[in-house]
Amino acid sequence: MVVGQIHIASEEVARLLSTVPDPEIPVLSVLDLGVVRRVDIDGKNIDIDLTPTYSGCPAMDTMAVDITSALLAEGYLPKVNLVLSPAWSTDWISENGRKKLAEYGVAPPLGNELDKRALLNGERLVTCTNCQSTNTTIVSQFGSTACKALFKCEDCLEPFDYFKCLK
Amino acid sequence: MSLRTYILSLSDNAMILGHRLSELCGHGPTLETDIALTNISLDFFGQVRSYLQYLASIDGDQVTEDTLAFLRTEREHHNCILLEQPNVDFAHIIMRQYLFDVFQLLQLEQQMLSTDETIAAIAAKAIKEARYHQRFSESWVLRLGDGTEVSHTKMQTALDTLYPFVHELFTQNDWEKELVEQGIASDVKGFESRYYDTVFQTLKSANLSKDDIINRYAQGKNGIHTEHLGYILTELQYMQRAYPNMQW
Ligand SMILES: [Zn+2]
Q1: C-alpha distance from A99 to closest chain B C-alpha (Å)
Q2: How many domains does chain A have?
Q3: Same structural domain, A109 and A64
Q4: In this model, does residue A94 exceed pLDDT 70?
Q5: What are the sequence ranges of the domains in chain B?
Q6: What is the DSSP letter of B224?
Q7: Per-residue pLDDT reduced to its tens digit, B58-93
């Protein structure tokens, strides 16, 4: 089956991977996030390429361990390789993932140009995850984790995270 | 041997600046800048891990990313001296950051074309983060340089202190020239004028002047450092020195 942009030959393996969460944004699975770049299945042997979101993302090691234990528990023999190239991009977050992000309270990334305008020129483009208003302003380019910026809504006054575009 | 020193020079620039920024964790002037600077620090440590894992795979034997990070002496570090300069105040932190961010962005652009696949891949990853770093530091240079009398004076002092170390970023040692010829290392000479154009433009917009600044002797790339590095390493290596081979 095809999940996001990659092909996973076994439905069961795809299902198991979809249960492994991103430890920092637990509503997203590693498949939603687009960090699983290749899954080769040979009987019980599973060879997986995992790519980091940000170079220093402390969640990567946890994800590798979580993937390994999820597959081991079902009798598979997984091998997880950390690969750097091609570099991860927020374009790899699945449609489903973007929806889940917004529901969770993290505004999903805009396209590259819009992202720059929102982050640098202070244009009001990011949608508030609480009331859907775009009357929002940036509080800080850097947020609680490497991948996020901090915004606030001028209508409902809620602060919220914005997942920065990385291209 | 050249390749080894080159990887260390790239990695040590990121590690020493990353460590300086990590000193600000919980001490930033505002919550937002505290979080921004420590996020940037984390990006640098991410780069460091990639470089040192690569180097450990070349060295083989008992060498790991940790032994490389924690068990080298001062003379075995190849970072430029600019990066080990102390935090002093927010003006120094921002100025040091800006002067390096512009350099690193240009360097990473070239490094993506390296004939060494791993070095190119690390650059392709890091450049995306480096763009955010430069936007952040540049906006603060402009805001503070062209701000109040106090902020302007502090920024000018920081520039006077740090600018004399910038020229070292563009020195090329024999080991580096050799790697440039092989297409492995990026040629710093190739983007030197672009660097100065960008920096002068920003400094001008920020009302800062670098006219009377004289370059200072700097041989950090060759392992000769200011006294500041020793203090950094004392803290950075404390656990491994006090409890050899400890793990957690
Ligand atoms: Zn709102």
Answers
A1: 24
A2: 2
A3: no
A4: yes
A5: 2-242
A6: B
A7: 998 899 999 999 999 999 999 999 999 999 999 999
User: Are A88 and A8 part of one and the same domain?
Assistant: yes
Query: Of the candidates B46, B120, B122, which has its C-beta nearest A56's C-beta?
Result: B46
Residues A71 and A120 in one domain: no
Residue B195's nearest CA partner among B62, B100, B71 is B100
Does the CB of A49 have a partner CB in chain B at under 8 Å?
Answer: no
Same domain, A82 and A47: yes
Chain mean pLDDT for chain B: 94
DSSP string, B141-207: HHHHHTS-HHHHHHHHHHHHHHGGGGGGGG---HHHHHHHHTTSS--GGGGHHHHHHHHHHHHHHTT
Q: In this predicted structure, which of A46-55, B44-53, B198-207, B231-240 has the lowest mean pLDDT?
A: A46-55
Structure tokens at A90: 């927020």
Give me the CATH number covering residue A131: 2.20.25
Together in a domain, A85 and A133: no
pLDDT, tens digit, 9 for 90 and up, residues B208-243: 998 877 888 889 999 999 999 999 999 999 999 999
Structural domain includes residue A98: no
pLDDT in tens, B11-50: 999 999 999 999 999 998 888 899 999 999 999 999 999 9
Rounded (5°) CA angle A121-A127-A131: 135
Distance A31 CA to ligand 1 centre (A): 29
Task: Check if CATH label 1.20.1260.10 holds for domain B2-242.
Answer: yes
**Residue A13 forms part of a structural domain:** yes
Domain range for residue A116?
105-163
Contact between B124 and A85 using a beta-carbon 8 Å cutoff = yes
| Contact between chains at A55 and B125 (C-beta distance less than 8 A) | yes
pLDDT at A116 (0 to 100) = 85
